[in-house]
Amino acid sequence: MMRDNGRVPARTISTQEHPEQERAFLVGLDARTRSRTAAKGTVPAQAAASRDAAVTSGMSKSDGRPSIPEFDAEESLAELRTLAESAGANVVGEVLQRRDRPDPATLVGAGKLEEIAGAAASADADVLLFDHDLSPSQQRNIEKIIQRRIIDRTQLILDIFARHARTREGQLQVELAQLHYMMPRLAGHGVEMSQLGGGIGTRGPGETKLETDRRKIARRVRHVEQQIENVRRIRAQQRQRRESAPLATVALVGYTNAGKSTLFNALTRAGVLSSSKMFATLDPTIRAIDLPSKRKVLLSDTVGFIRNLPHTLVSAFRATLEEVQRASLILHVSDASSRLSAEQDAQVEIVLKELEAEKKPRLRVMNKVDLLDDEVAESRIADTARLGSNTVYVSAIEGTGLQVLLERIDVLIEEDPVSRVRLRVPQSEGKVLAMLEARARIFNRKYTDGAVQMEVEAPESIARRVREWVVKSRA
């Protein structure tokens, strides 16, 4: 893009693909007063080091809140482009405006807005997507000048969530967030905004259309909140039944498109939708997996996070994200190939803190090592296996490093602890022997006098069931 006096002129994107898609024009803002902490030019091989430094040293302020490293303007606009494509739009142009501070009336300034209007018209754009949250008044002011539909970042994310929600639960959660977003944006003009008077000639037929709309939305919000509360109650009952058995829950969290669902499928063979589009997974999925110790744990796939994730979405999805709050271990999945992984990880920290889950035991999983340089990838994987660090490098799509990941999970899970015992089980106890074969690690066995003598390593839940055949060691 060319720069002229601090402004970046509009760039149209020639495309003949998907003519049936809505044509979107992107608008970004680079306010010079904001801090810029994302270093330009970091190569993928350095991403992990920069991420670790950010998480361990640059993640907290004096008030205890994590600091938020910001994407630079070009990277932010690139993320908006990916969001637009995930929403099914065909991006036909974009512009990045640089100014000292956002304009309170139109965000980018009235003069620049006239330029954008011309560029959008020449690109025949149906909708303008702003990489910024717009106030209701800003949105109205911009629409008057542009004469096209205007959608801000929050509304775009809500639309993607609505598009991808498959279950009734997910649809309810998205609808609640949309209703909260819509409420302050109801607008009326002139007499439509006035209350009914008490004098002659001021008595009207009832409440205004604006008041009626607000009343309808408030009523719908209460109804949806009640339905979500029912979902939460059902989830609590299901969780209570699960917790009656000694099964730990391991929750996958991470930035959107970090490869959580691909990793989930690789570990569970569940066939959950995995896609390069953002927020492909909204509805939580839980599957059991076997650890090397033969213990079972429940693995939970969750919705991906993103910077500036609308608070209404975090609130609406609390019923789903309770799986993260109750998890015994959190697997924080990051994209090892992204130079923005430090910033992305910081955003995950923000949401985990909001969920009050930031102090949960955690294992960092650097995914997509197949996209790194071969030597760098091999070095990272070798270091993980040798040093036993709290970071594991994997490639979910190629299956690299998954065994090391399972072993590390096995070490960190405290539920149903494993113990080593010696047993003498009668050969007539076929079911017991089959259970031990399936649920315990057998180190040696010997057949003698109609019994099987064996030394096994078994979870406590299994050891209790074979207690009568334990051979006590001699003092």
Structure commentary:
With 475 residues, the chain is of the alpha/beta class. It contains 15 helices and 14 strands. The N and C termini lie far apart (81 Å). Strands 7-8-6-9-10-11 form a 6-stranded mixed beta sheet, sandwiched between helices. Strands 1-3-2-4-5 form a 5-stranded mixed beta sheet, sandwiched between helices. A 3-stranded antiparallel beta sheet has the order 12-14-13. The protein has helices spanning 44-57, 73-86, 110-122, 136-146, 153-164, 168-182, 209-243, 260-268, 311-316, 318-325, 341-354, 374-387, 402-412, 430-439, 460-465; strands spanning 11-12, 22-31, 89-99, 127-130, 149-151, 248-254, 285-290, 296-301, 329-335, 362-367, 391-393, 418-426, 441-448, 451-459. 40% of the residues lie in helices and 19% in strands. Among the domains are: 11-34 and 70-151, 3-Layer(aba) Sandwich (Rossmann fold); 246-412, Rossmann fold; 418-469, 2-Layer Sandwich (Alpha-Beta Plaits). 37% of the residues are buried. Helix 6 runs antiparallel to helix 7 (209-243). Strand 9, helix 11 and strand 10 (362-367) form a beta-alpha-beta unit.
